[in-house]
Design a protein that fits this description.
Blueprint (H helix, E strand, L loop, with lengths): L3 H6 L1 H9 L7 H37 L3 H38 L18 E6 L12 H8 L2 E2 H8 L5 E2 L1 H20 L4 E2 L5 E2 L1 H7 L10 E2 L5 E2 L4 H6 L4 E4 L5 E10 L18 E11 L1 H22 L3 E5 L11 E9 L4 E10 L3 H6 L1 E4 L7 E2 L1 E9 H11 L7 E2 L13 E2 L2
């Protein structure tokens, strides 16, 4: 959600920010609607004030026996009521139009976000780890999993359709181990508080984090009006919706290991095989709620926490800063972590860490107030995958595969695997 006051004072800056996202200037339209709305509010307020005065004058005129003046004042009061009703209705309609525009415009990118049209214009920041030297032709994860008899897409499709999978035996345990390992790392070493939150939310929560109204087609909606969460970012951020927090307790850092559900409406034909793009998947999410002064530093910290998961698993990756054409709707700056997949012979996204400024906080109405002060400010919110569990399983399978099709269990996961050191048929 955008700040109207900022747009009034900085229309050129606002349009320039939208232009970096490939959008046409719109500040003039917004300000014209805002001017009309405020003018109607003034008409209504002035008419209401005059109506109140005239109503009092009626009593005085009646008391003095001036019936003609009393009747004239009654007629004026009646006409003022019509003015107020008409102005209020028009102001409400213009306000709704203004809200529609403001809630469907993306966040303004930070000045250091690279300009660009798509992922080809992203900026590589650093590369970590050594790619495995395999003396055989590496397989992709779905071939490995199916050959082991522990990854089944066909039976999942019988139950649920395309973009679902069933994991079995040691692979099911390996995915569970990954989630537990990530949560333990973030809570015991990175200072995040573990949360267990609902998988079903109301539309207000999805509005708060920016999925609604613009991206409803990407969501699964129930016949009760609830939506399945596409990420625990929704519930972790909205945990403090409509609240005023004490500045002294910030930053707040939350993490959750949850099921996520996405329709993948815009992904027809992409990653149709395997676990890269599923309707249902597991993810460990990180959310931070901070002040304006803390948020940039918090993004670097959060990204480092996600990177540490891959370092502990010894999975090679690279960090990229997303260009303006590839950034998410709510983001001001985003870092993507892309893990190396030998079977595909390329890097694939496994985490996305973003700072949203006060964009989500305005929608979710989350403020903070310094101790002993009356003035409040909107918090800044951040979110990041720490990591996408299914994609991490994919990376483990492809990087730790052996020539005979078995999978070596990474050292970091051995405490969670009940003595299993290698996954075999």
């Amino acid at each position: 959600m955008h700040d109207l006051k900022f747009i009034r004072e900085n229309p050129e800056v606002f349009d320039a920010g939208l232009a970096r996202r490939g959008l046409e200037p719109i500040s003039a339209e917004i300000l014209l609607l805002d001017e009309k709305r405020r003018a109607l509010m003034t008409i209504s307020q002035e008419a209401q004030a005059r109506r109140n005065t005239a109503s009092k004058e009626i009593g005085k005129a009646m008391g003095s026996g001036d019936k003609d003046s009393a009747e004239a004042l009654k007629a004026e009061v009646a006409s003022l009521k019509d003015v107020i009703t008409g102005a209020d209705a028009e102001e409400l309609a213009i306000g709704a139009e203004l809200d529609t525009i403001l809630t469907t415009l993306p966040n303004i990118p930070c000045s250091d976000a690279p300009d660009g049209a798509d992922e080809n214009d992203n900026q590589e920041m650093r590369v970590w780890g050594e790619k495995p030297h395999l003396d055989f032709m590496p397989k992709e994860h779905f071939d490995l999993g199916e050959d082991l008899g522990m990854m089944d897409f066909e039976r999942a499709a019988k139950m649920s359709g395309a973009r679902f999978v069933t994991l079995k035996g040691q692979l099911a345990r390996l995915e569970r181990a990954l989630g537990q390992f990530m949560i333990d790392l973030h809570t015991s070493e990175h200072g995040y508080t573990e949360m267990l939150t609902p998988a079903l939310v109301r539309d207000t929560a999805l509005f708060g984090t920016g999925q609604l109204p613009k991206f409803e087609e990407d969501l699964f909606k129930t016949d009760t009006g609830h939506y399945l969460i596409p990420t625990a970012e929704v519930t972790l951020t909205n945990f403090h919706a409509d609240e005023i927090l004490d500045t002294e307790i910030l930053p707040l850092r939350y993490t959750a290991f949850s099921q996520c559900f996405r329709s993948e409406a815009g992904s027809a034909g992409r990653d149709t095989r395997g676990m890269i793009r599923q309707h249902q998947f597991e993810k460990v999410e990180m959310v931070s709620i901070t002040t304006n002064e803390q948020s940039d530093e918090e993004l670097e910290r959060m990204t480092g926490c996600a990177e540490e998961v891959l370092k502990r698993l010894n999975l090679p990756y690279r960090l990229v800063k997303l260009c303006t054409g590839d950034m998410g709707f709510t983001s001001k700056r985003t870092y993507d972590i892309e893990v190396w997949l030998p079977g595909q012979g390329r890097y694939r996204e496994i985490s996305s860490c973003s700072v949203c400024g006060d964009f989500q906080a305005r929608r979710a109405k989350i403020r903070h107030r310094p101790k002993n002060e009356k003035q409040t400010s909107f918090v800044h919110t951040l979110n990041g995958s720490g990591l996408a569990v299914g994609r991490t399983l994919v990376a483990v399978l492809e990087n730790y595969q052996q020539a005979d099709g078995t999978i070596v269990v990474p050292d970091a996961l051995k405490p969670y695997m009940g003595g299993i050191l290698k996954i075999t048929k």
